[in-house]
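Pasting as-is:
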Amino acid sequence: MEKERKWICVAIAMLIAGILTGMLFYRRCVLVEAKVEKTQEKLAEEVLRFHVLANSDSKEDQKLKLKVKEDILVYLKQKLPNARSVEEAKKWTGSHEKDLEQVAEKRIREEGYFYSVKAKLTESYFPQKTYGDVTFPAGKYEALRIKIGRAKGHNWWCVLYPNLCFIDATNAIVPKKSKLKLKSVLDEEEYEMVTATSKFKMKWFFFGKK
């Protein structure tokens, strides 16, 4: 009987410990989720994304999407002024939507297609995306969206402000100047969340920054 009582006490203690651990883990998850949400909201106020949607997922439409993307980026590199703020970048982009449509339409026609094209500065939901060594949390961001035809295919994206588009795509390294722009609007912990390696993020999620 005494032995059974001991085992019952051990089982109860283990159950209580498990419940407490679960509660602590749940609380940690809630806190992390709140931190990620806050970081996303800050980023959304300071970045302008660029989003190109292909007509479909066919090989031909996906190739066309990339060609349109390249022409748009060349145009933006030549025409988009060196904006001092995200508001300036949005204002310029919003006032040149028709010009951007013409650039895209020219490439589409040259490739032998007759898809419609629509350029619009709009708010869109993005899943979590990693660009080079910077990860953007899922959420709503304002973006220059280029829709080709039915716009049902996989998309391509980058960030127009701060400039993350005109980099070496092979090495995929975000320019230091652009990182400094992000760092200026995030606290140290938030900045580490979006620029650290996946291994660090996993550790941060489970154990928190120490």
